[in-house]
């Protein structure tokens, strides 16, 4: 039985009785301490934020963005500890919808439904993706693709917190077949897309002015199943106001050139993410090197 399991279990129980301001301060402190103590991850975060900001790694703006992203991640972690104690309706009522181009985010959900082949909801390690899932699950059958923790009890504890909010879990290891099945049943499958891979493994995209490589599986699934893709995000705004934004659904079209189609759809997914990160860079928790090393101004 791992120490992490007992920490998570105890933290969830403690969070229930901890006032939100104190819980947030503890999260900030843990995030800040992790940033300062974990040198390798600090350097990776600085490289990523240098690309986002378009400035050298040693620029004060880059230094601030890297530090603040870890601080905000600590706040997210503190909120996740309290996730089991929150009602889905309370989560939704605490969020301000700032969706553009439609009266509300549900408009884009309804448009995505019209394809009749299911929906792939895409988000990122940005803001608070668990809250986004809890809100979406109130409107449509929703399954999230998630990694399985090696500690079985820890995995059960954390995934049950999501299931209690109506979020079914598809293990990452068996995601393609299960995802196709749910799309065919006109359900929603959700996943976080921002995962860098090698050139040999990934699909090339342009992101903040540089080429990097990411999995093309989301686009491939949409093209195969006919599902619409719905990008959406929930994040922390000013004065602790939670904000929500959905983007217009993407309806993949096949041209007969599979690789080109996958690249086109994947690029459109990342265009929405770039817009969010550009506006709220400290809400992006990317602690793995997202771009190839070449070309970074250090």
Give a short summary of the structure.
This protein has about 300 residues and is of the alpha/beta class. It has 11 helices and 9 strands. β6 and β7 form a beta hairpin.
Total domain count: 1
Alpha carbon gap, first and last residue: 42 Å
Question: Percent helix among the residues?
Answer: 40-55%
Helix tally equals: 11
Looking at the structure, what is the overall shape?
globular
Poorly predicted regions? none
The SS-based structural class is: alpha/beta
Whole-number mean pLDDT: 90
Strand percentage: 15-25%
Radius of gyration: 19 Å
Number of strands: 9
Strand ordering within the main sheet: 1-9-8-2-5-3-4
- Sequence of secondary-structure elements: HHHHHEHEHEHEHEEEHEEH
Largest sheet: 7 strands, mixed
Give an overview of the whole structure.
The chain has 298 residues and is an alpha/beta fold. The protein has one domain (3-283). The chain is built from 11 helices and 9 strands. It has helices spanning 3-15, 20-37, 39-53, 60-81, 88-93, 105-113, 129-136, 152-163, 175-184, 217-225, 258-279, and strands spanning 95-97, 119-123, 142-146, 167-171, 188-192, 203-207, 210-214, 228-236, 242-246. The longest helix is centred in the N-terminal third of the chain and has 22 residues, at 60-81. The model has no long low-confidence stretch (mean pLDDT 90).
């Amino acid at each position: 039985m791992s120490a992490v399991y007992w920490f998570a279990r105890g933290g969830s129980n403690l969070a229930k009785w901890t006032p939100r301001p104190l819980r947030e301060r503890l999260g900030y402190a843990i995030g800040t301490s992790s940033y300062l103590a974990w040198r390798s991850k600090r350097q990776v975060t600085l490289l990523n934020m240098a690309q986002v900001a378009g400035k050298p790694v040693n620029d004060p703006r880059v230094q601030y963005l890297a530090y603040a992203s870890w601080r905000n991640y600590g706040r997210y972690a503190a909120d996740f500890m309290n996730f089991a104690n929150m009602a889905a309706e309370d989560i939704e009522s605490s969020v301000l919808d700032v969706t553009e181009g439609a009266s509300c985010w549900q408009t884009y959900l309804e448009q995505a439904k019209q394809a009749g082949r299911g929906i792939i909801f895409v988000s990122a390690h940005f803001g608070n993706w668990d809250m986004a899932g809890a809100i979406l699950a109130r409107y449509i059958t929703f399954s999230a693709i998630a990694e399985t923790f090696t500690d079985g009890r820890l995995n059960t504890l954390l995934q049950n917190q999501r299931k209690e909010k109506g979020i079914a879990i598809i293990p990452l290891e068996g995601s393609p077949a299960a995802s196709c099945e749910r799309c065919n049943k006109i359900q929603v499958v959700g996943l976080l897309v921002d995962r860098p891979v090698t050139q040999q493994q990934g699909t090339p995209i342009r992101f903040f002015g540089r080429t990097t490589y990411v999995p093309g599986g989301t686009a491939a699934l949409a093209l195969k199943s006919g599902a619409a893709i719905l990008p959406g995000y929930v994040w922390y705004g000013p004065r602790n106001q939670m904000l929500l934004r959905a983007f217009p659904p993407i309806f993949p079209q096949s041209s007969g050139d599979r690789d080109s189609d996958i690249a086109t759809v994947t690029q459109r997914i990342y265009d929405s993410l770039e817009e969010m990160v550009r506006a709220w860079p400290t809400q992006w928790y990317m602690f793995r090197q997202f771009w190839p090393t070449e070309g970074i101004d250090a």
